[in-house]
## 1
Amino acid sequence: MSLWRLEWLRLWRTQRLMILLAVFGALGLLGPLTARYLPDLMESFGEEAVGAVPPMTPPDGITQYMGNAIQIGMLAVAFIGAAALVFDAKPEIAVFLRTRASIRDIFVPRFAVAAAASAATFGFGMVIAYVGTGVLLEWLDLWAVIVGSVLFMLYLVFAIALVGVVASILRSVPGVALVSVGALIILGLLSIVGALAPWLPGALVGAIDSLIRGGEFEYWRSIVATLILIAAMVPFAIRRLEAREV
Amino acid sequence: MSSVIVSSAGLTKRYGDVTALDRVDLEVTRGSVYGLVGPNGAGKTTMLGVLAGLRTATAGSTAVETASIGVLPDTPQFDRWLTGREVVALSRNLAGDPVPPSAVDDVLETAGLTDAAGRRVKGYSRGMLQRLGLASVIVTEPDLLLLDEPAAALDPAGRREVLDLILALRGKSTVLFSSHILDDVQEVCDDIGILTRGQIMYQGSLEGLLNRFVLDTFVVKLRSGAEDVEQALASEPWVKNVLVEGDKKVVVDVADVATAELRLVQVLAATGHRVVSVTKGTTSLEDVFLEVTR
């Protein structure tokens, strides 16, 4: 039994992996269904209702999925990341771990497994959304979908790193999850500063929407900034957790 | 190799305005079972936390002459979805030492958890969790065990099992355990430290403590007439104090044991009351603890 296996068991036995799969899977199904049938649905409410919804295009199948993933999916990711990374929530469990392994050895598997699970389950939902869009609307440029998905997965890793930082400050799972989501929202708001926007991790969120609509790849600055932030946040969280008393 | 495995000098720990440890000088001999005794809130858990590296001292220093330390909190908890065997296996693996995998089952058997080893921890009773905690510490074969109230809140059978596990460690490891259950300490400890309000009031061998604070008393049991006996004894110069308990029992605190042994029976005979027994009073750790912490 290693700390890596412990994290895998945590995901599996606590049903957290199934929760993430269910959330992203459902959202992946809902995206193309919404894009395909929302206009028909609105038609049943009359002409005024039809006018309230802009006409749907095939990329909207993915756009709808991303819109839900960034809200509902991100909340699930934050809670599941917090549940793994707040290992000081119960002092007795913290004593068991802290007196047997270094904080780095405890933190890294938790961070990596939570990030990998978040990215993988988001990818699972994206596969459903892509296939659903292809079947119900039109097949989109696969390469654009893959690149856009990888960029959002990088954003998810950033989000988990942020959860790790908050977990080094707070000790409650709900508190850490909600503060992390709040911090992500505030970071997103910073994009109103035009010069700052291309450098923010949040730029990765909208990448897929632009790419599947033929937009240019202009995310290098955001990728570099996000990688630097992740590389800085993980050791920062570890150092803070090392200094914490239990 | 030093004979002292754990020591502290002037160790102080403050939480804001509260001083949890106040210039504590601790010394634990290698291979001993050391009982850190004190009432709730005395600073025992803080002391163990500092020695385990889980808390930082405000002032003073500690020296722990081994890196092989096992720590057991007062109410051990584990991820509820792990089995008992997985908890012990994880502990063994994290220890990093070449402890053979077979040690996991051996330790579970020692802790009386073989039958429950495959069950998830969420179904364990309080006593089982305590024994699992101890098993997860023992499996790493540490040089030093820091146990925080290991038998507190257990039923008599559970307490017995935990104390037996500690007794089995004598000679293999050094055990430093905190407790406010004085009977447990008296039963298993070689050395003792009495901690109260963050200060060490006594430190040394248990035997030395009991001898130092031995109370020179005699307990006299009568058929009747305790008050007459009290009056007769009170006028004797070798008697310090006489305490009457009901009509049939008198506790005599004496200044000179030798004289008391010569004269006590004579004084009793002179009162004309029937004597059932005269016994030398014994000193329990509880008596001493109350004396020291008064």
## 2
Amino acid sequence: MKKYFKYWLKNSFLSLQSDLATRTATIFFIFGKILRFYFFLIFLFVILGRQGGFRNYSSSDLLTFFLVFNLFDIVGQVLFRGIYWFREKIITGSFDLILIKPINPIFAALTDKTDFLDLPLLVIIFYLLVKQSLLIPAANYWLFLLVSFAGLGLVTSIHIFVACLGILTTEVDHAIWIYRDLSSMARFPVDIYAPILRYFLIFVIPIGVIYTFPTQAFMGILSTQLVVYSVLISVVIFWLSLKLWDYCLKKYSGASS
Amino acid sequence: MKKYLQVFKISWQDSFAYRLNFFLWRLRTIFWILASYFFWLVVYQNRTTIGGYNQQSMFTYILGVFILSDLILSSLSVNLSVDISTGNLSNQLVKPVNIYYYWLARDWADKLLNLLFSLAEIAFVFVILRPPIFINLNFVSLIIIAVAVFLALLLNFFLNFLVSLLAFWFPEHGGWPQRFLFSILLSFFAGLYFPLDIFPKIIYQIFQILPTSYLIFFPLQIYLGRISSKEILVGFFLMVAWTLILIKVNKIVWRQGIAKYSSEGR
């Protein structure tokens, strides 16, 4: 465990150095990300307007959902940015160089880069989230942590599945963007949608478990059954993703190397 | 002309080289329509209009955004910035081709492909969901929209080209950082999130001066019949003026950029 932490720390430091070496690019990226966040916030306020909310959620609730969505979206990107470079490693054969290292290859592939460019936005989101949730009971924080951990497990699994697809087909980029496009439906709680879509987003592609459940736990409106479900589904899907990864590694042929 | 047709043909074939990649890319756009559709369905549950748009006109606008952004905003000339930063531009400079026509041919091959597929996808979504759509069959109106779309294609090409040329000065990451920032600004100011006239009048008037509002929002306003003949004429005038300004600026920036170009990495 200590070895992996040191490896991640070293990689992160290298990513930070790389960001600092290209300062203008870093400024463009950070500015763009913050701008995108605020544009969407404007969109949210324009849509909510005088209506005040959707279904049983007030404007303030929807803002919390939006902030938590961004929080998880960013955490996924900060930690697993390496997936965006995975295709290149497969088609050039440089993945071979990871395989010979004494480290778990999926860990090395996913955490190859740490995205520090999202950190300023993360600070803004934290600030807004703390302002939003000052009145939340302390017990809800623990539940939030538990469900968030399950959500993070699912995010990890999805990234592993995409990496598997990369090995089998060399296609990664659009697959990860499909996940992110689908995730965008969870900017708002998934239970505002029609029942069939809601079930799809909770039980088929568990986007709702990743993004909606933590906020609902935070607000104290998530049932015990769904808390248990989120933990179970996270464990099962994580296990399946690792099994598939093992299978894909056996299929990997080191093309181009 | 013949050589640019050949460039067009090669670009077209190139798009089909990685079929799974192509399929997943198109799948993304279907998910994007579905996500937008279901979201707006929820928004309109408790009310009949938003900023003067009823459900039918908003759905028409959203589907229009999907088709027009695939046609107008898609651009292969974004790769020019990669060519500049990697030094691959030298390959083009030694060829007997005009750099603008070359990228225009590549761009329009991509756009034709996008248009064909996005129309098929819209038809698919339409059959499945049957959203309430406003159908404009007025012949004169359709001609005016076609002119607006053509001008928007030119305007977007020169706007994109200019952003790509920035790679002469900012070559990091293949010119992607400035492209990223530009695409975020474009999404908002072109009205991809929602119609720009939802904003208060004073903000909307500022948007109307910008070239970005004529790429997607303006043709859709004509389609929906939300603007007068006078506003259409003013819009056309501004589109032509912006295009001419951008052509001039592009030429100046290209001249200065090419003087700075050192074909690094070659």
## 3
Amino acid sequence: MSSFGSLDDPAATFVLAGARIVDPSTDEDAIRDLAVVDGQLVEPATAPADAARFEGRGLVVGAGLCDLHVHLREPGMERAETIESGARAAAHGGFTTVCAMPNTDPPLDEPARVAMVLDRARNRACRVRVIAAATRGREGERITEVGELAGMGIAGVSDDGSVVASARVARGLLAYLAPLGLPLIEHAEDPALSAGSVMRAGETATRLGLAGWPPSAELSMVERDIALAQETGGWVHITHLSTAGGLDAIRRAKQGGIRVTCDVTPHHLALTDAWVAGWRGFAWDEPTGVAADPFGAPLDALLAYDPACRVNPPLASRADALALLAGVADGTIDAIATDHAPHPRERKGVEFGAAAPGMIGLETALSLGLAAVEAGRLQLPRLLEALATRPAKLIGEVRTLQPGSVADLVVFDPAARWRVEASGLASASSNTPLLGMELPGVVRMTVAGGRITYREGLGAGG
Amino acid sequence: MLDVANGHTTRHRSTTGGVVVSWPDSDAPAATGWPHRHLLDVDQLTRDELEGCLDLAVEMRERRLRRETLDLLRGEVVGLAFCEPSTRTRVSFELAAEALGAQVVELPIDVSSVTKGESLVDTLRTLERTGVTTVILRHSMSGAPYLAARSVPVRIVNAGDGSHAHPTQALLDALTLRDALGSLDGRKIAIVGDIGHSRVARSNLHALTSLGATIWLAGPPAWVRGFEAWPGVHVADRLEDALADADAVMTLRIQLEREAGGGVPSLREYTARWGLDADRLAVAQTGAPVLHPGPTNEGVEITADLAASERSLIGTQVVNGVAMRMAVLALLAQ
């Protein structure tokens, strides 16, 4: 039985015996007991004798996951998701913080609207931080009142869904944000190059007769923003990076000391554009069928053109996905962020080109990361650093598993398998092409701010 | 094979690519050899199945010439769902379905709402409940027939989806070429024009390469880019390279609205560099036939003289279209 909690529940007290503790903040990776008393991590020896004891053998404890990019759809699109359902999806996926993007209806482009969302987000199943719109109405012209918004604790500003198309406005924003210590979070897509396109340009798009957007649509904006960050001293964060070229540009910029950070989604790491043609293997798997023979292999009538695979930026080529995985492994990519984008059935049960772009990701992110770990593409500590420690640090939060800190953690069974089914998801939407697939990694407990926000199948232990 | 001479009077069956079609004047049992419920593209067909389709179309053509009554589709209701303007393909399917004894209904589809992606599945579900058993679907968006096939329990015949596929056009082109050339094995076929936006070209690449031909593409770079990697396909930098020693040449309709956006500077320049005329065809095999899926922009992609010459198979394509669609409908109804 699974159960959800919230941030105003009583603080937790328990002992987890013999789990593998992976704490990138101290480079700890050891099997030991972990004790929480009144929401605080303590030395296990000091835990009261009557504290609940759970068996931790075979389980991993990581710091609470932190998602820099989610769409909670409230206000305005509550059929797709609400703050409550999105927060539960987060807790189910092991997240203790999510950053909500401002492209709601109306958009979060003024302090009162940000305050409303923060108010509605209190005492849910995870912390909700707000990313405010970069420009009024997300129209790319007048910047929002960033100074006042900064005082409300926003995590950054973004016109996500669109790039800040005017270089002049983006430059002004970066300069204005620099002393506030907040990032401009950029959806790097040149609209002139991507116009009309519904997937990534390449062999699969050519086969399917779908207009593809070229990688240069991302690269040109990444390079523009790097130049603007260098000139202004501002901090630009490229979200949902999807190309090897963009990654190379960021790697060079970081080496040059420019203030640029970035995240990548789990689906751009694990899935490829061949999914649009109906292939269902991971980027690191040996291509077969239409992935190996993009022009000749027959399309699978049940899986080809699945609108669940329509996402922006589009699913990448295999070479891009493997380069991005290497970018996570070597630390060039700071964070894995889901771009959790719920859509109701009526916006997805349509022709591929008419479907709303986006897929949900909060409840499958850890599992896709663990699949990459199983495949030898990532080390577990690096995965957990990218899902928790580094993104938390970018938004001013701390993640550590050492005694003396507030308990903020995820307990999961990396070897257990689960089948992705709509009925098993806490999200109000189920738009993911992973439906029906079996993935590794089952979250057993999520603890946010010392409160148990999700728990499933943890057994009593000795 | 069918004993054509005895058409009406003897029991017989015809074998097409391992598939047995029972004729109404035969008391042979109904055959079940055709493994496909839908025709979404020709990529799903093996070479034997492709050849079988062509063989059956030849037979349909002959029976139609003899004005035989065929009622292989008696009791079937064929719905024409054309969510994009079309005349010749729609009429061709309508004639084919009626020639086989089906009841044909034209589905009242509001083109403007369907192209917005609002109601395809809903419309098709309604029609299925009213008794339509086969839907002939034309749609402006690539992949729409796949959505239809997995959402609604009717047979779907793709009559053209976006830039993706036009399988019956490719089959009738293959038939036309096979009739003209004897066999496609080892033949060089040139296709000229806007390949990138062409569903006709894509389905022809599948069909013609599967039947053993090698394809040479020519056109403005923006319209041919990306096809070099297609097995059996070459992209020529110059039209002459595509036409040299070609056994047949197919040119495609230039969509005037796609001139914008960097594809080609002007129609005048397109015609100057890629327009087909008799002089340019001199480098091809002697008498190499010319095809065009229609409707032609005469004087743009092909001169009126060439289109009307005896090398032109444009009229044959239209005749073959009805026979080929009869064959497809008959096979799917097995």
## 4
Amino acid sequence: MIETKTLPTEYVTDPGAIKSSIGKTLRTDEMIINMGPQHPSTHGVLRLEIVVDGEIIVDVIPHIGYLHRCFEKHAEHMINYQQVIPYCDRLDYCAAINEEHSYVLAVERMLKIEVPERVEYIRVIMAELQRIASHLIAVGTFGIDAGAFTPFLYAFHDRERILSLFEMTCGARLLYNYFWIGGLSHDLPPQFVGKAKEFCTYFKPRIKEFNDLLTFNEIFVKRTANVGVLPKDVAINYACSGPMLRGSGINWDLRRDDPYSVYHKIEWEPKIGKGEMGTVGDVWDRHIVRMREMEESVKIIEQALAALPEGNVQAAIPKRIRPDAGEIYTRTETPRGELGFYIISDGSGTPYRVKGRSPAFVNLSVLPDISRGGMIADLVLIAGSVDIVLGQVDR
Amino acid sequence: MTAVGIYFNNIWLALSSIAIGMRITISHLFVKNVTTQYPDFKLKMPERARNRLYVNIDDCIGCDQCSMACPVDCITIETIKSTPDQDLGTTSTGQKKRLHVPVFDIDIAKCCYCGLCVPPCPTDCIVMTDVYEFSEFDRQNLIYNFSVMTSQDIEQARVKLKKAEEEAAAKKAASAAAAKAAAPPPAEKPAGPPQSQPPSTPTPDSSGQPGKS
Amino acid sequence: MEAFQNLGFWETLLVTVVLSALPLVFILLYALVTIYLEMKVAAHMQDRLAYMRTGWHGVLQPIADFIKLLQKEDIISVAADRKLFILAPYIVFMGTYAAYAAIPFSSIFIGSNIDLGAFFIVAVSSLVVVGILMAGWASNNKWSIFGAVRSAAQMVSYEIPTALALLIAVMITGSLNLQEVTQFQSGGIQNWLIFGGPLPLLQKILVIPFTVITFLILFVASLAEVNRTPFDLPEAESELVQGYFTEYSGMRWALFYVAEYANMFLVAGVAVALFLGGWESPFGSFLSGPIWGMFWFVIKGMVLVFVQIWLRWTLPRLRVDQLMYISWKVLTPFLFVCIIAIGLILVL
């Protein structure tokens, strides 16, 4: 609810009247501004209705639904479970592989099939490469929100190399349809391992350069430290996940705490925010969590490449995908947080219900709570640090 | 640190981080650019590139697998059964073709380039090429008609099919009447009737208009 | 201007008009060059190419942009305050252009050799604030008003460090007249005010740290005057779409844009004239003369403009309250210290 100010009645005769003689107060009204669906800095078609008092924000009301494409309804009309995978890609178009991973895991658990080890390792490699690509978009566009245009270009330069790795493997740069139920659509091409190792060695100094240019730049630190602080209890109550949760100091990562695939065989650790430049849970913490997660992903990729076993990636693909009647909820850690798929099957080859629990939607709900009291310039940074992709928010 | 210390420390941090940032950007002035100046220079697509679809209609046996596999329903196929006296030839993979394919339309504007239509094809006649420059001015030009049957061919095939069906129906009626007249004992094991008809396929639409999806 | 005292009224008027149009010609040519330079420098810092197709490596692109802007439809929204909306770009440009009258391009060419040169420049360039407020208010757009109000606060508070830095230069040279300040620094690069000016050696060495700091502060304050990153809050592209000139299109927008670039060169020119020797050659009498003077002035000005562009593409943006903090709590105290120190050293 918007707090309305009340002044003593002898000063004001009608609302909005301004009396300016000595000793009497100037009454100011709150202004409602629309950061509309078309705006250079809301990441997609998001409408933010902001109630401001001068430059201080009193309330933020997000309006979503501009990108709703009826994913769940489409899934009910597909002929088989395999056809839903291109739709899953398009939920979060910046991190498509992680969406596929979650859905494919859910169906495989329903069918109770075990995929070959090679498939698991390749899936981990692709998921981590996609995590790096998605985080590069997040930090690049975050730099633009803060006013620094150059780091975005450097981030996209690195992202091009990842996308060409994907293109070499499955033929598509952004929306892959690569993970199939029970396996993969293509095996890795022979030059993939070499090029991926090359990428890992190329990328590590680039992270350092990016940090020097943006993350540890004093102006950036002053803009982002102590801004948009998300306390631990608020984060847990709002069911935040991903870098938002870890930035507030909570050590929770689904790859370790609810393990899937072969993450338990690889040595890595989740990164959490420690409040190095300000308070724990501020915008800078979330940013540095993303930067450090990229370094961690490079480690995971190198270990997975070294341990890649041989095998046939299409050995376990079932001829007919017909799970028993029942329901399942499976969740994985995407770059934005916990993505869950709740699938109800009625025993036929078509899903009865597919619900996507999207992390961006849940994380966005915390935006009004953490931006009250800040300025509009801060709101732009806070919205950028939540890292929403409207395809996932609206499904 | 005292307040004065923090104040001077902030100034020092600001100046030093700005200087580091400026050094990075000026050093990038001397790095070679990464731009490919399209359309003078085009990047080479990898061999698994998934771009525009192409159908080799000579190899198509009209099985409709690709159309069923498509998640966005962009492929429209109509078939006409062929009669036993027609020889449609064999595909390059050695299968005998038994169906005419008068309509094989792909609305490439709907296609989501997922590649789900390629694996089910038994003759590998539908492939994803590496062509990515296919913009059109008119949206109707994005509906690709792959069938090569002329309208006379289609009429001929239809007429033949109808005739064959009528003959078969007449024969069946005659043999049923004869069987009734002869009053055979019910224990007689019925011999499997010789299959002169190809396996059943979806019956063609009588509109016969190619190019409409 | 003294040579034209024997002419009649109309001839004087004609000559005045022609001479005062010369800086306009300079501004337009300079704007074309700088727009191209900014885009190219930005692109190469980001490992990409900018314009390549119009002319060789895109040198004709600014002309193409100009022609495109000329033929654009002039859209004024119905709810906008028409008179103020139309007047605002002219006032902004006027504020910048009038100050060009006192910039010493060369020993023989200065628009108006007034004894209050530096003071005049600071005073007249404040007209820009009025223009910006008009533009923001007349657009009748909440985002424009935000940009305009922020800009007004920013420019007013950064006048103080600018004026104080000017004061330091005036203290050392003893005159507000920019030609005299420039001529004070004649004799080679060691006589430039940033290196202490033509003072006796002991005083010079003591004064150098303070003049260097003063020059840097003048440069930073002038960045804020021009609304360039890191102080480009009024036109923060990612927040306010385009700030106070969101609603402008076509030639009106082009006028704002040219005014911004003209302002960039103005403050660079003032800094050069005061601290970097103006039109004096750095080699003393080698390569000096009236025409060479113009060349040196423009070159030094362009170097400072390049540094402004470099900073824009490196740094993120400051928030409004941090901007105020820097002006009032960092730049101004440092300048006070410099004034006192330099004053003491000069008296020694």
